[in-house]
Amino acid sequence: MEVKDILKEIKSNLLGLVGGKFEDLKSESKKDVQDFLNASKVKLERWTLLLAAGHISPEEYKWLVESQKDLVILKGLYAAGVSKIKLGHLKNSILDSVINTAIGLVAKTTDTSTEDANA
């Protein structure tokens, strides 16, 4: 699977996550997710490529993604009155979703490649 496909899947999962939690604030949440992805795109691409190539472990990938927590700003949701506590939990959920999606897709791709090589 290509990195751009993994990033699309991450975006889709994040929009579903945030939209599901804040159904009435979809436009704000969509903009906040897009802002985070724009701010993190280059790093996420690089780290996902390193993960896929086996140059970093899933634990290292997780640590790197979690280092981006300050980029998850969620201005729109905050301005709409969502509490800081809820936003803090949402930031953690966003990072967990990015990590789990990327690691899951890379692992699935690696498993498929290994099976193809053994066939």
From TrEMBL:
It comes from the Bacteria. This is Uncharacterized protein.
